[in-house]
Design brief:
Helix 1 crosses helix 3. Strand 2 (17-21), helix 1 (29-47) and strand 3 form a beta-alpha-beta unit. This protein is α+β, with helices and mostly antiparallel strands and 96 residues long. The chain has three helices and three strands.
Length: 96
Amino acid sequence: MPLFVVYAAANDLGFNRLGLSVSKKVGNAVKRNRVRRLVQENCRAVLNEDTPEQSQGFDLIVIARVPAGELAREGSFVKVGQALLQLFGRLGVLEV
């Protein structure tokens, strides 16, 4: 089962914007905040690598699914990063 669902729409701002949705189904507040922090940090690392003179930006909405809250602490940052990179590549946000 996938960890995330990502929606993307092009914008003319020249930079990316991120929206997150982590429902109570994912877990208690501690788990939800942990998932939110993992997603934000991975997106910050991956999406800000683009050159600042890019003309196309994207509005991204990342929706966490239940398995994202069940990730073990060990290696969760890498697993979240791999899942997001795969989804961003499919959407054409990044060239993977």
